[in-house]
């Protein structure tokens, strides 16, 4: 029987990547300029590809068909952090999108750094070799995402008064949910603690804030909803509805 | 059937997105296990989410079935060792350049954000080294976009011949 602790870790990884990848894809055609459309298209493709690989590991463990795990599970079964399911801003990509670039950059930076540290831990210490090997590969790709968002963070912080104001608002909003990222269970598969993760994350990120003269947000509240325990917002249900629509329309079709 | 015949056939299988470059040139082929009529090929994806992987799998199977004595082919994608851009062969680098894509530079090292002594590749990439222009050879180039038309490419600009070009990412 599959160790439920290992399955939970894989669901967290897969669901995190799939949900943020979907949010990234919603920027297509709406990003600040065409290079950014290309960047977010590429980042979304990377993240959905990573999610696919994690779902396949679940499938290899006998827990279902990878596509079903991605598209058919309900919101209460999802283990992604709530931060990643929040919409990019007001409206939808089809109707009156008023997406928030400052929030997107802040959220992305918070997540990419968390993910980099998480993957490093798994690649170097996970006792389940297929996952350790996959994490070792993925972390090489994720470094491009992290660098991209560090670059944007500096650009907005040192740009105009307005870009700085919007970034700060995005950071404040991000920090309301960021604590939910760190709700991870220590095990032989993930040999670290939430406290150690948060400490490392803070040690890496704070100097970035100092370098551009932004005050470090002193408060990171405990998450109101624990996404890792299946507690989610209505926004996730709407996202899943959209994402799985085609897959549910023709069950069994070969794509 | 010999291992050499299988490797020669693999050299005919091109990267679907970069036609002059074979999967062997790209360094994607790991172990090749030849049994009685059966060939198992371990391949390393360049990028985990590369949408060309299934096409590559099919093309490898189709090509190897043409080799005398081969009746059954299995392609297995593996992550150990991971594909890195250092695996591209010298021939592959030359063919990338001929196609207008600068081959990867550097060894994928990192700096900043956690790359302490002995920390291995850091969390943050170093982009200090820029690729020379594949068209005019000038070293006077700069990065335009970390991301490009496929997962494995970035976009640069040559300040020598004033042309944009693509470069294979260093991973």
Which keywords apply here?
heterodimer, A: about 260 residues, mainly alpha, Ferritin, two-stranded antiparallel sheet, 9 helices, 2 strands, about 65% helix, about 0% strand, B: about 170 residues, alpha/beta, GMP Synthetase, Chain A, domain 3, 2 domains, four-stranded mixed beta sheet, three-stranded mixed beta sheet, 3 helices, about 15% helix
Give the N-terminus to C-terminus distance of chain B in angstroms: 35 Å
Shape of chain B: elongated
Give the overall silhouette of chain A.
globular
Largest interface: A-B, 36 and 33 residues
| Total count of domains of chain B | 2
Which second-level CATH architecture of the largest domain in chain B applies? Answer: 2-Layer Sandwich
Gyration radius of chain A, to the nearest Å? Answer: 18 Å
The count of domains of chain A is: 1
| CATH class category of the largest domain in chain B | Alpha Beta
Individual helix count of chain B = 3
Low-pLDDT segments of chain A: none
CATH homologous superfamily grouping of chain A: Ferritin, core subunit, four-helix bundle
State the secondary-structure class of chain A: mainly alpha
Which sequence of SSEs, written as H and E, runs from N to C of chain A?
Answer: HHHEEHHHHHH
